[in-house]
Amino acid sequence: MQFAEEIVVDEFLPTIRSLLAGDLRDRGLTQSEVADVLGISQSAVSKYAHGDVTVNDRIAEDDRIRDLVDELGSGLATGDISPVQALIEIEVLIRELESGGDLLAQLHEEAVPELADHGSSFRVHDPESDLRTSERVLSSLRRGLGMLETASGFTGLIPAVGSNLVACTPDAETVDDVAGVPGRIFDVKGQATVPADPEFGVSEHVARVLLAARRHGADVSAAINITYDSELIDELTEQGHVAAEFDESGDVASSVGAAIEDEPEATVLYQTGGMGIEPLIYVLDTDAESIAETIRSLI
Question: What is the pLDDT of residues 76-87, one digit of tens each?
Answer without folding.
Answer: 999 888 888 888
